[in-house]
Amino acid sequence: MLRITDQITVEDWELTEHFMRASGPGGQNVNKVSSAVELRFEAARSPNLPEPVKNRLRRLAGRRWTKEGALVIQCDETRSQARNRDIARDRLADLIRKATEKPKRRIPTRPTLGSKKRRLKAKKVRGEVKALRGKIDNQD
Hints:
It is built from three helices and five strands. 16% of the residues are buried. The strands form two sheets. The protein has a three-stranded antiparallel sheet with strand order 3-4-5, with helices on one face. It has a two-stranded antiparallel sheet with strand order 1-2. Helix 1 (51-61) crosses helix 2. The chain is an alpha+beta fold. It is elongated and about 85 Å long.
C-alpha cells in the first residue's frame, strides 16, 4: 500500500511492476540484469481517487497516460532494481499529490492605460525602424 495523503492511498492491486534491461551505465552488467522498472497504475479504475483528481492527473501525466486509463512511469536511473522501484513509486506519489491541489482560478484583468500607450509607442518605433530599411534612391 502506497500512502499519498491522509485520505488517498494506492492499493497494491492497482500497481503493476515490470522489470526490463536498462540502457546507460553498467558495463556488461546492463546486458544481463533487468534493473529498469515500468510502474503501471490503473488510475481510471482506482476507487480511492476522486473524479476531479483523476481528471487533473490525466492532464498532468500527458503522454504517460494510456488509452486504457493507466499511468505508466519508467525509471532506469540507477543500477539497483530496488532503488529504481522506489524512485518510480516516489514519482507516482508526487504526481498524485500535485493532482490533489486545486488550481487557482484566474481573475481576468484589463491592461492599464499606461501599458496600452507603451505598447503602441513600441509598435510605432518598430514600424519606423522597418520603414528605414527601404531602398534608397540615388539623386545623381
